[in-house]
Amino acid sequence: MSTLITVAPTGAEVDKAAVPALPVTLDELVATAKECESVGAAVIHVHIRDDAAKPTLDQGRLRATVQALRQETGLIVQLSTGGAVTDPEDARLAVLDAAPDMASCTMGTVNFGDDVFLNRWEFIVELHTRMRDRGIVPEYEIFDVGHLASLARLLDKHGLPAGGHVHVDFVMGVPGGMPGTTETLVAARQAMRDLPAGTTFAATGIGRSTLPVLLSTLAAGGHVRVGMEDTVTYAKGQPVESNAQLVARAAGLARLAQRPPMSVADARTLLGIAA
Ligand code: KMH
Ligand code: ZN
């Protein structure tokens, strides 16, 4: 099977002043998206920033972002409903009003460095249900192995998502979540046994776990997420120059693993997203 590459170019945590290459304006985001598409990305996981480069869930900006990415690229647009740790639930739910192809849905609360990334059960159910009602395909974000048990419970009680396919993303190496190691990746993959047959997984490693997780997930038959949301260091002492640099590296490794980057059309089919 080919490799689905998702790029997460911005995130909510990296500081533009410290990392000038971080795309924060709409123009920067669109330019990054085009470059990443040309080197193998099929999905873009989007957080947006305000004029001061701070994270925002502003409705007008979200809609303009979805529109621009659709106009300028063929990428599948996935909006983050995780936002920043300070974002309230109602604003995170309202992200869906911008009508993206996909949205993230984090499957539980986790310590997030010195902060708490709060995801109450009722909130998760509301996200899952609203997404299904609107035909938005979720990517279930798994920060800890127990989140897979919560996902099995969610699907058992509330049914399959829009499109009928279940896709999860292991976000590894967050201080407070599961470590970004091969052992943990294998444990998480095994813990998927209670999910519907055909469930697919991607993985991303934060910071220094980026490369171990990238190599492990390719070897384990998984898909990959890369981008400056997750790492701003390409190699020891070498800052990331661009998101496309990270996508190109992932695409090269995927080819080496005989699992070349998946086309957007194939990604749509896999994830159950209408063309
Ligand atoms: N920024 C983190 C608090 C997501 O996008 O869904 C949450 C996050 C997950 O990035
Ligand atoms: Zn995110």
What characteristics describe this protein?
275 residues, globular, binds (5S)-5-amino-3-OXO-hexanoic acid, binds zinc ion, 19% strand, 9 helices, alpha/beta, two-stranded antiparallel sheet
Describe the structure.
- α3 (89-94) links the parallel β5 (76-79) and β6.
- This protein has a single domain, classed as Aldolase class I (TIM Barrel), CATH 3.20.20.70.
- 37% of the residues lie in helices and 19% in strands.
- α1 packs parallel to α2 and α1 (26-38) packs parallel to α8.
- The protein is globular, with a radius of gyration of 17 Å.
- The model has no long low-confidence stretch (mean pLDDT 98).
- It has an eight-stranded parallel β-barrel with strand order 1-2-5-6-9-10-11-12, surrounded by eight helices.
- It is an alpha/beta fold.
- The chain has helices at 26-38, 59-72, 89-94, 121-134, 146-158, 182-190, 210-219, 243-256, 264-271; strands at residues 5-7, 43-46, 48-49, 55-56, 76-79, 102-106, 110-112, 115-117, 137-142, 167-172, 200-205, 223-226, 233-235, 238-239.
- (5S)-5-amino-3-OXO-hexanoic acid binds at residues 11-13, 80-82, 84-85, 104, 106, 112, 117, 141.
- Keywords: Metal-binding, Transferase, Zinc.
- This is 3-keto-5-aminohexanoate cleavage protein.
- One of its GO terms (molecular function) is 3-keto-5-aminohexanoate cleavage activity.
